[in-house]
Write a structure and sequence with these properties.
Shape: globular
Number of strands: 14
Distance between the termini: 35 Å
CATH superfamily of the largest domain: P-loop containing nucleotide triphosphate hydrolases
CATH class of the largest domain: Alpha Beta
Strand order of the largest sheet: 6-7-8-3-9-10
Oligomer: single chain
Radius of gyration: 23 Å
Number of domains: 2
Helix content: 25-40%
CATH topology of the largest domain: Rossmann fold
Order of helices and strands: EEEHEEHEHHHEHEHEEHEEEHEH
Length: 298
């Protein structure tokens, strides 16, 4: 179990992280979420012991983190930092050996992971010769090759098409099922909602929302419905009891006034558009993210 306790990090004149705490259990994905500049990267770098906290504590399995902890962690940063002029296989082997693998094990596991990610044919290529998506795969391999207990992923799906997003997602879930602790930092709220069991949303260095994803959605629940339809839905926003509307082409999420029953809304719109789907919904993590950040940034 990873524990972050009353973490505070202050730079000259800037309070980047302000007394945040969270716990991540084995075999779970924890979402560390927030807008740009919220303090996510500072928190991650403190966990990795790249920078030291001003105050607070980080514990793993009940003990303060130490140099031994470094080889138990894997980190996929948002910024790309691999050696573009070097061969793929050499990069992976070098970074694996830095994490404590022998040369023979580094070679063996490098080939295994290249096969898993369907890019074994590029092992003798220079990194700069690969597409951005395949470069991201190499960076992912370097984060997991040493079989870390804790894996920190910062925007891991950047640069991937839907097929490769699914491939990486399946690999992440297999790592969770094997008991790994995973911290996911992302702006893709839909993925966070599907993958994470618990989240911490921070803004301006402070916690603004945390807990189990399902509980968070219930806590911020509103009188909302989702509809799919044929026809012109431009009139929806003019209904007097519509509080908020997210409308797309033949799809909408509608927040109603609390004193209005969804059945009334259904009756009012059913003669104007052809409904294909109607359901009462809890707010998405994306909606909660936007609403909470707006309130705490005001």
């Amino acid at each position: 179990m990873l524990e972050v306790i009353n973490l505070r990090k202050e730079f000259t004149g800037v309070l980047a992280v302000d007394n945040i705490s969270f716990t991540v259990k084995q075999g779970s994905i924890f979402g560390l979420l927030g807008p740009n500049g919220a303090g996510k990267t500072t928190t991650i770098r403190t966990i990795l012991d790249i920078i030291r906290p001003t105050s607070g504590e980080i514990r793993f399995d009940g003990k303060p983190i130490s140099s031994e902890f470094q080889n138990k962690t894997g980190y996929l940063p948002e910024e790309r930092g691999l050696y573009k002029k070097s061969k793929v296989i050499d990069i992976i082997k070098y970074l694996a050996e830095l994490k404590g693998l022998s040369a023979s094990n580094a070679s063996k596991h490098a080939v295994e992971w290249l096969k898993k990610l369907e890019i074994e044919q590029y092992k003798e290529k220079k990194l700069e010769e690969l597409s951005k998506g395949n470069q991201q795969k190499i960076q992912f391999i370097t984060a997991v090759i040493h079989d870390p207990s804790i894996l920190i992923l910062d925007e891991p799906f950047t640069g991937f098409d839907p097929i490769n997003q699914q491939l990486i997602k399946d690999l992440i879930l297999s790592l969770v099922n094997s008991g790994k602790i995973i911290i996911l930092s992302t702006h893709q709220m839909e993925l966070a909602e599907k993958l994470c069991s618990d989240i911490l949303l921070i803004n301006q260095g402070k916690e603004v929302c945390s807990g189990n994803v399902g509980d968070v959605r219930k806590r911020f629940g509103t009188n909302s419905v989702k509809i799919e339809f044929n026809g012109d839905g431009s009139f929806l926003n003019s209904l007097p009891y519509v509080q908020h509307l997210d409308a797309y082409n033949n799809y909408a999420e509608v927040e109603l006034r609390n004193d209005v029953e969804p059945t009334k809304f259904l009756q009012d719109i059913s003669t104007k558009i052809q409904l294909r789907h109607f359901s009462v919904i809890e707010p998405t993590l994306n909606r909660i993210f936007i609403d909470v950040i707006k309130k705490t940034s005001a």
